[in-house]
Amino acid sequence: MKFFIDTANLAQIQEAHDLGILDGVTTNPSLMAKEGIKGEAAILQHYKDICEIVGDGDVSAEVLSTDFASIIEEGKKLAAIDSNIVVKVPMIKDGVKAIKWFTDNNIRTNCTLVFSAGQAILAAKAGATYVSPFIGRIDDSSWDGVELIAQIAQIYSIQGFKTEILAASIRNALHIVKCAEAGADVCTCPLDSILGLLKHPLTDIGLAKFLEDAKKM
Ligand code: E4P
User: Fold this and answer.
1) Neighbour count for residue 159 (Cβ, 10 Å)
2) Domain ranges of the chain
3) Could you say which of 81, 103, 175, 184 is the most buried, measured as most Cβ atoms within 10 Å of its Cβ?
4) What global pTM score does this model have?
5) Class in CATH terms, 2-214
6) How far apart are CA 165 and CA 153, in angstroms?
């Protein structure tokens, strides 16, 4: 399973990259706004900066348009920033149409705001590189996000779809473990959830004892 970090914060991206386990980055308009990125030039430059940090990793850059022609125009501009840019397109009618166009023109896509298996089938039919089910937001509305990942994984495997399942809207370390179990190809997570995987009290207790005993060596 690949690990992406879900942020537009350069310091956090650098920290995850330095850990040596980072395969890519996802961003969205809310995450970009949180970093104070405003205006087209600043947006394009910020994506460039992210690509420089992650090197070979994929970087999802989201279009802000919702009609076919503007999505295509915007997506082409984003894809021209760097070969690692993946154009993130919302799961709407014009979005599906645009994903098919990008697929036919060798531009990789991440279909975002996916909340059902039906939407995941459409994204795969259009040839999306990644499909992003938002599992945390599903859990927030008392449905089961991890169950959706398992359902999509089963459908894609039966049907032979090549689209990779990118579990998004991760809220904690347990989500990452459960998504790995359910067949996600990628988890995109906040830094805290990635670091949460490190935690176990027996590791801390065991290390403290080893370090104490090491003094007697
Ligand atoms: C996915 O790519 C989105 O950026 C993200 O995972 C949304 O997460 P949220 O529900 O925590 O906003």
Assistant:
1) 10
2) 2-214
3) 184
4) 0.96
5) alpha beta
6) 7
